[in-house]
Write a structure and sequence with these properties.
The protein has one domain. It has 149 residues and is an all-alpha fold. 16% of the residues are buried. It is built from 7 helices and no strands.
């Protein structure tokens, strides 16, 4: 995994967690609907069906919480890596793009720089981090990604 790939995963993980939370909300919504409760009561086992549904929701919440913990660990590692840069412009550009998910054009506009200059600063920052972390990156990534295995 390259430094750029490592930094880029924060936005993907953010979307993944949002997706899982949405799935959990749908599961809760369906399980609490009057139709599912009525169907369960027709079978004469309302309590057991509701218990099973609650158990499924609890298991889903536990899994999502593990993913959120892994995501938070990864995001902390990304922030630590970005904050290790001594050049403040490089740090700013990487924070804005990889931690706040802003597009290059917006970063340029907000920082009163040209798009080309922002991209140059990004390239220098990535190069610096590649030199610093290069082969060590797999050691940094492994604990964070373990939560998703």
């Amino acid at each position: 995994m390259t430094v750029k790939e490592f930094l880029s995963q924060a936005e993907y993980l953010d979307r993944l967690i949002d997706s899982e939370l949405e799935q959990l909300e749908q599961l809760r919504s369906v399980s609490c609907s009057s139709k599912s409760i009525a169907a369960a009561s027709k079978n004469g086992s309302t309590v057991s069906v509701i218990e099973k549904t609650v158990e499924k929701i609890c298991l889903a919440e536990e899994e999502i919480n593990r993913h959120i913990d892994g995501y938070a660990d990864t995001k902390r590692e990304i922030a630590r890596m970005v904050n290790s840069l001594s050049d403040l412009q490089q740090r700013y550009v990487l924070e804005q793009h990889y931690l706040l998910f802003k597009p290059w054009e917006r970063i340029a506009e907000e920082s009163y720089m040209s798009l080309r200059n922002v991209q140059y600063i990004h390239k220098k920052a990535i190069s610096t981090l590649e030199e610093r972390y290069g082969e060590k990156l797999s050691l940094v990534c492994a604990p964070c990604l373990a939560a998703y295995a």
